[in-house]
Amino acid sequence: MTFLFIHQNFPGQYFHIVRRLAGQNDKRVYFITQTSQIEIPGVSKIVYKPELPELSSCHPYAAPFDAAVRTGTAVAEACRKLLEAGVVPDIVVGHCGWGETLFVKEVFPRAPLLTYFEFFYHAQGADVGFDPEFAPSHPDDRSRLQVRNAVTRLSFAECDWGQAATAWQRSLFPAAMQARITRLHEGVDTATVKPDPGAWIKLAPQNIVLTRSDEVITYVSRNLEPYRGFHIFMRALPEILRRRPRLHVMIVGGDGLSYSHPPPYGGSYREMMLAELNGRLDLSRVHFLGSVPYATFLNVLQVSSAHVYLTYPFVLSWSFLEAMSAGCAVIGSATPPVAEVLRDRENGFLVDFLSTEALCDRVDEIHGHPNRHQAMREAARATAIRDFDTDAVILPLWDRLMKTLIEGRRPVEQPPDPGLGTQYRIV
Predict the structure, then answer these.
(1) CB-based burial of residue 65 (10 Å sphere; 0-12 exposed, 13-18 middle, 19+ buried)?
(2) Does the pLDDT at position 47 exceed 70?
(3) Fold matches, 2-187+390-406 and 200-387
(4) 59 pLDDT exceeds 70?
(5) CA angle 304, 310, 315 (to 5 degrees)
(6) From the candidate CATH numbers 3.30.870.10, 3.50.50.60, 3.30.2130.10, 3.40.50.2000, the one assigned to the domain spanning 200-387
(7) Contact yes or no for 236/356 (Cβ under 8 A)
(8) How far is residue 318's CA from residue 389's CA, in Å, rounded to a whole number?
(9) pLDDT of 427
(10) Domain residues of the chain, as ranges?
(11) Does the model's pTM come out above 0.90?
């Protein structure tokens, strides 16, 4: 049986399912992607490079659409090369966000296409306009986002079935689309991501060694930016450090941009916040680790005494669920889809995204009574195992969905998930 996956950032959300399929002797796995140094044994990568002009004369609203069409045609050409080599997939699985799945059916018309639908943009009720400082509303948002969603709508029209990671992300799509979108997360390897009471980490160049017996706040994001609440977290630190004189802070993340607009005066958001807080932070206790290897990232979580995860209403980060799997005491923003998983004072704490005071209070509460919250840590890990474990929960669901499509059957349609107005209670 032959599987074809498509994602510009190999392996993207498909790491767990691809790795498992590639380890089975009766499966052949191909992956169309852009340049990547990552390798998975048994996976044949086909690299493509879209021709994207530096300048475009089209309307600004249409520029992302133009890039998506160019990306889609480049992927279609990669598919044709596979076809010429005699490769005909039994199923194609791909992320539609950059236009990659737009023209796949033109090359493989009989192969079922399972498309990842990650986000459907709205002018109100989601990320746009949520943060008055860095994501304010504009009069043209509705028109601009309508065009931005056009690639998603076209991709939906071309696919046989869809998949979204969380109930809230699924709820963003029109009801007619939700009927053909299954809620299915990519999962967490809970056997690898687990608590380690003996964990320790050494920070250079200070030669500081931190263990589970220390007070250690952790914050993780692929890039340090407003979408993941970096500015809120940083503004809370002076008071947190004042209240907890023995506490250290470990911050993991790069200086690039994943979702946010560039800082208003150039540079990085890390530089911007350090300038804003100049003289108010004890930098001997604030450690910026940058982008780190996965093993180091897990080590950071395992020594954490309080893990902070803030986000606009947007896609859910893998690091959030991995922090729960590692048994962290998670302080998360009361925003969807975080509060879809995190229940306040049961398996973590929920705080108002914009409230630095609430964040300081929860950090203080955790460290003021460290033994009191062990049950909450255990509940966080139990949630990750019950709902997101790759081997026991998630991969069997992927197998079932793909098998249904390969056999030419239609998955059972599900009713729409609750809409944008979902509210979450903070005790």
Answers:
(1) middle
(2) yes
(3) yes
(4) yes
(5) 115
(6) 3.40.50.2000
(7) yes
(8) 13
(9) 44
(10) 2-187+390-406, 200-387
(11) yes
Let me know the angle formed at the C-alpha of 123 by 152 and 101, rounded to the nearest 5 degrees: 10
The Cα–Cα gap between 15 and 96 comes to 17
Phi, psi of 284, rounded to the nearest 5 degrees: -75, -15
Q: What is the pLDDT of residues 161-206, one digit of tens each?
A: 999 999 999 999 999 999 999 999 999 999 999 999 999 999 988 8
The number of C-alpha atoms within 13 Å of 42 and in the hemisphere containing its C-beta is 16
Tokens of 422: 């979902």
Mean pLDDT (the chain) is 94
Where helices occur in 180-292 by DSSP H, the ranges are 230-243, 269-276
404, containing H or E segment: helix 395-406
What is the spatial distance between Cα 243 and Cα 405, in angstroms, rounded to a whole number?
56
pLDDT tens digits for 345-372? Answer: 999 999 999 999 999 999 999 999 888 8
What superfamily would CATH give domain 2-187+390-406? Glycogen Phosphorylase B; (3.40.50.2000)
pLDDT in tens, 306-315: 999 999 999 9
